Amino acid sequence: MTGLRKQAFFALADLYVFPSRHESHGLTLVEALRAGLPAVCLDHHGAREVMRPECGLLVPPEQMREAIASLLLDPGRRARMSQAARDYGGTLRFSDTAAKLADLLSPERQ
C-alpha cells in the first residue's frame, strides 16, 4: 500500500500497531509517526532505533494486547503521544538513515 491510500488509512486510525519481530529500520513506523499516530511496537532493534517513549510503547510479545488496550482506553494519553509522534516523526528522514548506512559500508571505514 502506498501514497494517498496509505495516508487515508493513517488518518482513520487511532493507533499504529507494529508487531514485526525483525525489522531493520521500521520505515512504516516512521510513516505512522509522521502521520501523528502513537505506536505500540514489539521491542526489537528496528523499533528501538526509531521509537521514543513519548510517542508510544515498546513491549514484549506477551504485553502487546494489554498495551494496545491501555492506549485505546486513554484518549488523553493518545492525544499527547499523537502530537509527540507528529513532532518527532517530522524530524526523521529516510535519507539520513541511508547516508549512515552508506557510511558504514564505505570502503574507507574498513
Structure, described:
It is a single chain. This protein is mostly helical. The protein has a single domain, classed as Rossmann fold. The protein is 55% helix and 10% strand. The protein contains six helices and three strands, in the order H-E-H-E-H-E-H-H-H. It has a three-stranded parallel β-sheet with strand order 1-2-3, with helices on both faces. Helix 2 packs across helix 5. The radius of gyration is 15 Å and the shape is globular. The mean pLDDT is 87.
Q: Which CATH top level class fits?
A: Alpha Beta
Alpha-beta classification: mainly alpha
CA(first)-CA(last) distance: 38 Å
| Beta content | 5-15%
- Number of alpha- plus pi-helical segments: 6
How is this structure best summarized?
Helices cover 55% and strands 10% of the residues. With 110 residues, the protein is mainly alpha-helical.
Please supply descriptive tags for the structure shown above.
Rossmann fold; globular; three-stranded parallel β-sheet; 110 residues; mainly alpha
Topology, pairings included?
Blueprint: H1 3-12, E1 16-18, H2 27-34, E2 39-42, H3 45-50, E3 56-59, H4 64-72, H5 75-89, H6 94-105
